[in-house]
Write a structure and sequence with these properties.
The protein contains 6 helices and 4 strands. The protein is α/β, with parallel strands linked by helices. The protein has one domain: Rossmann fold. Helix 1 packs across helix 6. The radius of gyration is 14 Å and the shape is globular. Bound molecules: 4-nitrophenyl phosphate. 4-nitrophenyl phosphate (4NP) binds next to loops.
Length: 153
């Protein structure tokens, strides 16, 4: 069993899209009993809010299910629950490392693009200002299948 936690700043754009995409991939491969997925924020800025309308439109385009998702900040229990904590950009990683309750938790924290050896340090760009939700989807499509392979192996 592997618990995967996707994290971004607001939990209304990138991490809910990552959660929905990963869940779809897991369902397609019949791994629902083995891999569990959640997403959370590093901030309380968007607490209680649904995904951004632009993120919803992009997810609708790809038949992704985000029903019932609302933003919430990460908790100590999330750190304990997760086996893998995947942040979208370096600011997320910095924040996560700052608040990680234990050394063991620190080791769970990964940057999404770091699964690709030739793209170390690349960020899932924040779509907040330019509304490029298509880029978010493309970048997640490039990285998430490799995380699933990593977990399976
Ligand atoms: P996300 O996008 O971290 O991908 O959910 C953002 C959401 C909210 C803000 C920034 C980015 N904000 O500044 O409130």
């Amino acid at each position: 069993m592997t618990n995967v936690l996707f994290v971004c700043l607001g939990n209304i754009c990138r991490s809910p899209m990552a959660e929905a995409m990963f869940k779809k991939m897991i369902a397609e491969q019949h791994l629902e009993q083995q891999i569990f997925v959640k997403s959370v924020a590093t901030s309380s800025e968007e607490f209680g809010n649904s995904p951004h309308p632009g993120a919803q439109a992009e997810m609708d385009k790809h038949a992704l299910n985000y029903a019932g998702h609302t933003s919430r900040p990460i908790t100590k229990d999330d750190f304990k629950w997760a086996d893998l904590i995947i942040g979208m950009d370096s600011q997320n990683i910095h924040q996560l490392k700052r608040i990680a309750p234990s050394q063991e938790d620190l080791n769970k924290i990964k940057l999404c693009y770091d699964i690709l050896p030739d793209k170390q340090g690349v960020e899932i760009a924040d779509p907040w200002y330019d509304h490029r939700f298509d880029r978010t989807y493309r970048q997640l499509s490039e990285t998430l299948p490799h995380w699933l392979d990593f977990i399976k192996n």
